[in-house]
């Protein structure tokens, strides 16, 4: 099976674990998968997210293989029904950043990636931030999506 076909067939499954024991469950899963041979078990990733206590995320092609590996591991409490997408995991981690007028931000999207700017105005309904670039020789006002900036410091 080619790498593209394998990537398309892999899904993310959530395993429940005792709180603060997620890493132990993940290490045991990894050890068992290596012992059986990762190519035979078809696990491509094991992820623990500190923000989501009590869960270990496993990317693989067959849920029964993942469940067989996890059965008998101390602190493993079961498999969550259903399949998750990577986008669902990322969206659950995204925290809304509070940006106010006067804050200094760094632009993290192209074409102005890496530039710093001062927030002049915010349109929260449209999700846009109006900035004056600080790194340019002239004060050039630009509009950037609010998710495309990272707060550096508060009001100056």
Overview features:
5 helices; 156 residues; elongated; disordered N terminus; 4-stranded antiparallel sheet; 5-stranded antiparallel sheet; alpha+beta
Helix/strand layout:
Layout lengths: L2 H7 L1 E7 L4 H15 L1 H4 L1 E5 L7 E6 L2 H8 L5 E4 L6 H8 L10 E4 L8 E8 L4 E6 L7 E5 L3 E5 L3
Antiparallel strand pairs: 1-3, 1-4, 2-3, 5-6, 5-9, 6-7, 7-8
Order of helices and strands: HEHHEEHEHEEEEE
User: What coarse outline follows from CA principal-axis ratios?
Assistant: elongated
Please estimate the helix content: 25-40%
Biggest sheet descriptor: 5 strands, antiparallel
Q: Round the mean pLDDT to the nearest integer and report it.
A: 81
* N- and C-termini, Cα separation: 57 Å
Structural class: alpha+beta
Stretches where pLDDT is under 50 for at least 5 consecutive residues are 1-7
Major sheet: arrangement of strands: 8-7-6-5-9
What gyration radius follows from the Cα positions, in whole Å? 22 Å
Number of strands: 9
β-strand percent reads 25-35%
* Tally of contiguous helical segments: 5
Compact description:
This protein is of the alpha+beta class and 156 residues long.
Question: How would you describe this protein?
Answer:
The relative contact order is 0.15. By secondary structure, the chain is of the alpha+beta class. The strands form 2 sheets. It has a 5-stranded antiparallel beta sheet with strand order 8-7-6-5-9, with no helix packed on it. Strands 2-3-1-4 form a 4-stranded antiparallel beta sheet. It has 5 helices and 9 strands, in the order H-E-H-H-E-E-H-E-H-E-E-E-E-E. 27% of the residues lie in helices and 32% in strands. A hairpin with a 7-residue loop joins strand 7 and strand 8.
